[in-house]
Amino acid sequence: MSKEQTRFVYVTYIRSTSEKVFEAIMKPEVTRRYWGHENVSDWKPGSTWEHVRANQERTVDLVGKVVEVSPPTRLVFTWTSPSQAADPDSYTRVSFEVVPYEDMVRLTVTHDELEAGSEMDKGIQHGWPMVLSSLKSLLETGQGLDVFAKPKAA
To answer: What mean pLDDT do residues 100-119 have?
Structure first.
């Protein structure tokens, strides 16, 4: 019996260009400024992708394969924990759609093929809004958010 699947969709509008948003997702030197990680790949379909902590340890937290690259409008890759990389059923899929909208862009991130209620499902529901808010902040103000900040006590 197959497990129930779900997806997470997040849409934001960013005062930037499609090219700058696309570059911010793909270039390690930019992703580290808003995500605390680097997205490392040659970005060719079928190539590996690694999500590497931007610190001295350089821990690889996520891995996957590049599925589709259509600069500056669409990027798709698979996503799993390195400890589960040998299990084809563990992979989820992330799609970035970047569409010009007046003097800004609409960025839609869809994370699908998720097992409903799984730790991955729960984690991305918190993670994507923080990361994408930080991306928006970086591109609009020049400064990303501290995505690893702990909530302050009231």
So the answer is: 96
